[in-house]
Amino acid sequence: MKLWLLDTDVIIDLIRLKVFDKLATLHEINAASTVIDEVRYYIRDGVQVPIPFRREYVDTGIVSEVSAEPEELAEVLDHIPEHQRSVIHGGELESMAVLVRRDDLVFCSCDAATIRALPFLDLSERGISVEKLLKTSGLTQSSFEDRHKEAYFRSNLDIGKRNRLDRLFFTKPAPY
């Protein structure tokens, strides 16, 4: 699978859960430049654990780095409602712009705001939760945080779909 890791949190969580390296052997992993630059460390037992992500994964070719053009970012912003734009970070915005351009990628995210924005870009059907990604990859995990679960992903996607329908029916005049 051509896997798109949409945000910093999902990359850090997969590294922290010690499944990132295995996923990298099973899938072609891609990430946005902005997201890659944000992956710096995670906290374990109150101690900051550094992640030399660019050096260990990008520079070695394990993860492919992809960038979006300013016009692509502007197009994504045009589709996302104003009230949602403020909760979407730069890396997530760049990721969504690349997803619009590249229809060969399956994305994984655990960020509620980003997942809720995806229906506005017609990207709902190309997403996968951390839980489902690990299961389809044949990897087991004894427990998941709520944000990694399939139910969390689907719930936020459903909220985004309802918000999109509300916007279509209640903020735009009906065509004649």
Q: Which tags fit this structure?
A:
alpha/beta; globular; five-stranded parallel beta sheet; 176 residues; two-stranded antiparallel ribbon
State the gist of this model:
50% of the residues lie in helices and 15% in strands. It is α/β, with parallel strands linked by helices. It has one domain (2-170): 3-Layer(aba) Sandwich (Rossmann fold).
Structural description of this entry:
The protein is an alpha/beta fold. The protein has one domain (2-170): Rossmann fold (3-Layer(aba) Sandwich). The protein is 50% helix and 15% strand. The chain has ten helices and seven strands. The chain has helices at residues 8-16, 20-26, 33-38, 53-58, 70-79, 82-85, 90-101, 112-117, 130-136, 150-170; strands at residues 2-5, 28-32, 41-44, 47-50, 63-66, 106-108, 127-128. The protein has a five-stranded parallel beta sheet with strand order 5-2-1-6-7. The protein has a two-stranded antiparallel sheet with strand order 3-4. Strand 6, helix 8 and strand 7 (127-128) form a beta-alpha-beta unit. The longest helix has 21 residues, at 150-170. The mean pLDDT is 93.
